[in-house]
Amino acid sequence: MPLSLKTLTPISFFILFLLLPFTASSSIQYLLQSQGLPVGLFPDNVKSYKLDPDGLLEVHLDSPCMAKFDGRVHFDRVVRANLTYGGLVGLEGLSQEELFLWLPVQDIIVNDPSSGLILFDIGVAHKQLSLSLFEDPPVCKSQEVLAEKIGRKKGFQVQR
Q: Rounded to an integer, what distance in angstroms lies between the CA atom of residue 68 and that of residue 97?
């Protein structure tokens, strides 16, 4: 008997709904890996992505958020880049904190995977980081959660 929408139960729809975020996240990881990039470049809250035939990658997150690689990074709700083998070029929507300044990450490149290094171009400098930092998607905390934690810390300081 062929599977149709009529034969799916409400529980099946619920299970399918729960699996959709995992599918988007794992498929972006598969895409990155197939292009010679580590799977942990995008955070764990990827909602969906779109890859145009000309290589423009657009990644949609649940919300803007902060994560950590070697330092803090900020992901906008939408991150765009030209996807090439071994690189994300012309990035928009990703910035990295350097010496209390937030600088846009322009390119992420893996020239030689056997070197174990990945290059982050932040305009004024290039950073070489260990590929091992990107083995798993980072946990990304929304700005609301971070603001709430900071508010609680300040609240405790005021009560002293």
A: 10
Q: Is the pLDDT of residue 108 over 70?
A: yes
Do residues 65 and 96 make contact, with C-beta atoms less than 8 angstroms apart?
no
User: In the prediction, which pLDDT does 145 show?
Assistant: 52
Taking the complete model, does pTM exceed 0.90, yes or no?
A: no
CA-based radius of gyration for the chain: 19
Give the distance, in angstroms, between the CA of residue 17 and the centroid of all CA atoms in the same chain: 21
In 3D space, the residue among 135, 126, 93 whose CA is nearest the CA of residue 108 turns out to be 126
DSSP 93-151: EEEEEETTEEEE--EEE-S-GGGTEEEEE-SS-EEEEEGGGGSSPPP-EEHHHHHHHHH
In 3D space, the residue among 109, 127, 112, 20 whose CA is nearest the CA of residue 71 turns out to be: 127
Helix or strand holding residue 28 (H, E): helix 10-34
Q: Identify the sign of the CA torsion 109, 112, 118, 124.
A: negative
Give per-residue pLDDT as tens, 7-66. Answer: 444 443 333 333 333 345 458 999 999 999 999 999 999 999 999 999 999 999 999 999
